[in-house]
Write a structure and sequence with these properties.
Number of strands: 23
Strand content: 15-25%
Radius of gyration: 23 Å
Number of helices: 14
Structural class: alpha/beta
Helix content: 25-40%
């Protein structure tokens, strides 16, 4: 079983695939101290101020002299990141060789879109009716029968006391959820006095099928549970007519996210997802990569793959726009990684970013999507969103993802509104938290699978989940949303 890996020939550090005791030799260096799993060992002497190279890219600089064999981490290296960067388009677009698409058993909506689930959703437009929505879910579980996969609500604290940009983002995000194809039918739940009014919401929603989407204003009825239950019966009758049928993978949209990352994320799980993404796009399917702050320091790895200058400018504006967001709040751009990331071996934001963007594989980038926007182009898309797990997974759902691939080295139980597959970076996590983990990419670190083999296996499991196989989070009923907020609360 391999103990260390040098990711790129020009790297001056190696990563421990498993805990490496002092005396472990690799690449001409011998560990002078214990190197924890996921952490870095110097392969040669590194002078103070020299770049630390990993993934073939600088991930920071040495803050003091580092001898070959020493542990490299926060005590002896630091980030190079500052503020905005001027990007120059140097196209490096590699066209994907087309592959005959596989199929999955999904639902075909009346507007022609595909879906991986056929569920009833209750969307509150304001936090004041959250408990009404929960009560309706509890009282109407008998409607979950036949081809209806479940009845769920996605509560949140917003929809009132918001202004300007925040108000618009909440409205846009909730409308996008209502339009999501995995919802066979939707009950939109209003209070009646919130500043996200019924008329505003209908305008945001645009054209909709009144058989699929119904509205209830709680202040307008005597008994909101009784009235809501009657509407849900009508919606269940509509949704119940849909049945699974064979659909090509080219119609599948998959979101890609990492959270609770460790030093193996960019070596096992994320590049496995990258291999999957390349297979998906070669089959004519669609993948979405988000977490903009976790692209900082690895931007050129991504944006030179934009298909043209226009998409490159959108990507550049997305990156610098998010940096401006940080700076406008008097926050440093590089205030990342998290304590858990550091414990797992990630030292700087560049270190985290270079691993994070591995999920994007090598496919061309076809479009950049605003927060709350929906996918319109097949292929690899970038989505404006933060690194926060709940916020970014909600944005991926709103963008149209039928399911989400979520890589993790530390583990996390949460689920988005769509099936959320947890992919472990290491076998100890997959073994310990088998009730959280759906796929073990740690087999790559164990030498039992290549990345290409793991990518093919992941594609097979994605097709099974898209066809109805429940994820761990789904079996527990773990589903929630979080909406991006920036401004004041009145």
């Amino acid at each position: 079983m391999p103990v260390f890996i040098q990711i790129n020939d020009i790297d001056n550090v190696a990563v421990a695939l498993h805990p490496a005791p002092a005396g472990t030799a690799f690449g001409g260096a011998t560990a002078s101290e214990e190197i924890p799993q996921g952490h870095k060992m110097a392969l040669k002497d590194i002078a103070a101020g020299d770049m630390i190279m990993k993934y073939g890219l600088p991930i920071g600089h040495a803050t003091k002299e580092i001898k070959a064999g020493q542990w490299v981490h926060t005590h002896n290296m630091a980030t190079n990141l500052k503020g905005e960067v001027e990007y120059n388009y140097e196209p490096a677009v590699r066209e994907m060789e087309p592959i005959e698409p596989k199929t999955f058993l999904g639902y075909r909506r009346k507007d022609g879109r595909a879906a991986s689930r056929n569920e009833l959703w209750i969307i509150p437009t304001v936090g004041c009716v959250n408990d009404v929505a929960k009560a309706l879910v509890h009282a109407n579980q008998d409607l979950v029968e036949g081809t209806i996969d479940g009845l769920y609500t996605f509560t949140h604290p917003f929809g009132c006391s918001q202004t300007g940009h925040d108000h618009a983002q909440t409205r846009r995000l909730l409308a996008a959820l209502v339009k999501h194809p995995n919802a066979g039918a939707v009950l939109v739940l209003h209070l009646g006095c919130e500043n996200l009014t019924h008329d505003q919401f209908v305008e945001e929603l645009g054209d909709y099928d009144p058989q699929r989407v119904k509205f209830l204003t709680c202040q307008s009825v005597e008994d909101e549970i009784e009235a809501g239950s009657e509407l849900l019966k009508e919606l269940a009758a509509y949704a119940g007519q849909f049945k699974r049928e064979e659909i090509p993978v080219s119609e599948l949209v998959v979101g890609m996210k990492c959270g609770g990352s460790d030093g193996l994320s960019g070596i096992t799980a994320n590049p496995t997802v990258g291999r999957f993404s390349d297979l998906m796009t070669a089959m004519g399917g669609t993948t979405i990569l988000t977490e903009v702050p976790e692209m900082f320091g690895a931007e050129n790895f991504l944006i030179n793959r934009c298909i043209n200058q226009e998409i490159f400018e959108k990507a550049s504006n997305m990156l610098n726009g998010f940096k401006d967001y940080f700076i406008s709040h008097n926050e440093v751009v590089y205030d990342n990684p998290s304590p858990g990331n550091k414990q797992g071996g990630i030292t700087t934001l560049e270190d985290k970013s270079c691993g994070c963007v591995q999920k994007g594989g090598k496919a061309p980038i076809v479009d950049v999507i605003d927060y709350g926007g929906q996918v319109t182009e097949k292929g690899l898309n970038l989505l404006y969103g933060p690194g926060n797990d709940l916020v970014s997974c909600t944005a991926l759902t709103a963008a149209g993802a039928h399911l989400i691939l979520f890589t993790t080295g530390r583990g996390t139980p949460f689920g988005a509104p769509v099936p959320t597959m947890k992919i472990a970076t290491n076998t100890p996590l997959a073994t310990k938290k088998a009730n959280w983990i759906d796929f073990n990419a740690g087999l790559v670190a164990d030498g039992l699978k290549t990345l290409d083999e793991a990518g093919v296996d992941l594609l097979e499991q994605v097709c099974q989940v898209a066809s109805g196989q429940e994820t761990c989070a789904e079996r527990k009923g773990f589903r929630e949303i979080s909406i991006f907020k920036d401004g004041v609360v009145l």
